[in-house]
Design brief:
The protein is an alpha/beta fold and 194 residues long. It has one domain: Rossmann fold, CATH 3.40.50. The chain is built from four helices and six strands, in the order E-H-E-E-H-E-H-E-E-H. The protein has a six-stranded mixed sheet with strand order 2-3-1-4-5-6, sandwiched between helices.
Length: 194
């Protein structure tokens, strides 16, 4: 199964979804990719790959919906040795955290370092999602994030109150990933030509 990037015929991308255990990442991933619902909590074991198309994200001039793979990575530290292999050739990273859990806020730096900085991804290729679980009260107040996290796009997610808001933000993010990868590819092609 190809995990790396663009082909000449289709617009495609590989995204990596990482998170803390019990942050609501899998339920959110199912919602954003329109996959089946999971009603009970089962920790993600290793990785789960969701393939999907988004009709709102198209290739530059073909009008064809882009195809994506979203790699839903288990957040348990016992899988840490697998993370570099899972991240290889990814085009973007979505870091999901439970905004109501103080320890998550303290550990986002580690996730960003491991999944974004070490992979040499641009800020536009990273999205932070402060996920609020049902019944949590969802305080969308500003979160105090340290540099370089405060430069990243941060969205709040609550699937009970406003599910379409997170869907629209995710579509914007997919478009920015496609643009970033396309620009990088154009630069590589120009460097080969010159």
């Amino acid at each position: 199964r190809a995990h790396s990037g663009f082909t000449s015929l289709l617009c495609s991308g590989a995204l990596f979804l990482s998170s803390f255990p019990q942050s609501g990442k899998t339920v959110l991933a199912n919602f954003l990719t329109e996959s089946s619902d999971i009603t009970e909590y089962n920790p993600t074991q290793g990785v789960r790959i969701l393939e999907f198309e988004n009709p709102h994200v198209t290739s530059n001039n073909k009008g064809t919906a882009c195809e994506f793979e979203l790699w839903d990575c288990g957040g348990d530290p016992k899988f840490e040795s697998c993370w570099p292999a899972l991240m290889k050739d990814s085009h973007g990273v979505v870091i999901v955290f439970n905004a109501d859990t103080p320890s998550h806020l303290k550990e986002i730096d580690m996730w960003h370092s491991c999944f974004v900085q070490q992979q040499l991804l641009q800020d536009a290729q990273c999205l932070l999602i402060a996920h609020h679980k049902p019944g949590s009260g969802s305080d969308k107040g500003s979160l105090s994030l340290s540099p370089p996290l405060n430069k990243l796009k941060l969205v709040h997610s609550n699937l009970e109150d406003d599910p379409e808001e997170i869907r629209m933000e995710f579509i914007k993010y997919l478009k920015s990933v496609i643009n970033s990868v396309s620009e990088s590819r154009d630069r590589e092609e120009m460097s080969i030509i010159t």
